[in-house]
Amino acid sequence: MEKYEVVSKISKTIDYNSRRWNKEIIDRYLLRYDDKRIIECMTIIHLNSDEYLDLTVELSNMYNCIVGCRFCASGSLPESRIFLKGEDYLRQVETCLEASNVNPLDYKMFHIAFTGIGEPSLVKEEIARGIKLIKDKYPNVEVNIATTGFDPSCFKYWSGQNLPIRTLQLPYYSCIPDKMKYIIQNLPVGYDLGRNIEEAIKYKREHNLCRVKVNFVVIDEFNSSNDDLDIMLSYLERFKEDIILKISFLNYTKKCQEFGLKSPDYQRMVEIIARIKRAGFDCYLFGTANNTELGCGQLVQNYISQDGEEGKRFIKRYPNN
To answer: Which CATH number do you get for residue 81?
Structure first.
């Protein structure tokens, strides 16, 4: 299979809060999807101190993103959304592995993460096809999917496809509709987070490999007060025995700066974890308070705003960006 051209690359080693690992070795790539468009993907090696745990390749789900999260750098991509094909996911994997010079067989675990740009539920069929293509080549692969659930039928569809899904993750910003709409600007009419969590749990109960995570992205003075936490815990109480709460720092982006969005400080995040644990939820802290420049869409945002000739050519193609 022909690989994508690597347009840009950033490599970093980052100390990170997580349950199972505390360090990441990252290669993040911009790939030339076609003569007009670029997509992001990333190779990640997770370590616990000096012990290598797994190799993960994070993929773009589509070109550009339909969700419209107010804080997300993915909104920097110009032009309309382009849905990818199953072969495009395998091609991203092959390009990342070759560019990073890594072999999945050298690691205890090999994961594919559909957690990059785009909304997986809207390309549920091609996601499934891509997973099967990847599994045909790498039989030991397991898959993580982070979805807002714009199309809630995705869970039932994936359930019938015999896929090695180890994590289904849904985001939580608030259960108050106006606050949800503020953060997710393109939220569909009738969106129901509770229904999506229920559908993900149904998948989990039919597939022993799978866990359901709710990713609580904590935003200072938006959903970080004790009252906000109590509202969330009350809303999620019925799912307590079936979910893991991931308490995440908000990645810094230019969009965050534009709208005045930021994470609470580390001490407040620790207090939030303690309060949630006292309520009987399984939870852990995730991410870092530092600006890693590796959040979803950040590399492409920096790339198209740069002063170099390539960035200028990209902007010239899309002067309304």
So the answer is: 3.20.20.70
Domain extent at residue 17: 5-314
Our count of domains for the chain comes to 1
Chain centroid offset of residue 278 CA: 28
* Mean pLDDT for the stretch of residues 31-41: 89
Instruction: Note whether residue 208 is domain-resident.
Output: yes
Average pLDDT over residues 1-11: 92
User: Would the pTM of this model clear 0.85, i.e. be above it?
Assistant: yes
223 in any annotated domain: yes
Contact 2, 284 (CB under 8 A): no
d(CA 28, CA 26): 6
| Residue 250 belongs to a domain | yes
Spatial strand order of the sheet with 211-217 comes to: 5-15, 23-32, 38-48, 51-58, 109-114, 141-146, 165-172, 211-217, 244-248, 283-286
Q: Do the Cβ atoms of 110 and 134 come closer than 8 Å?
A: no
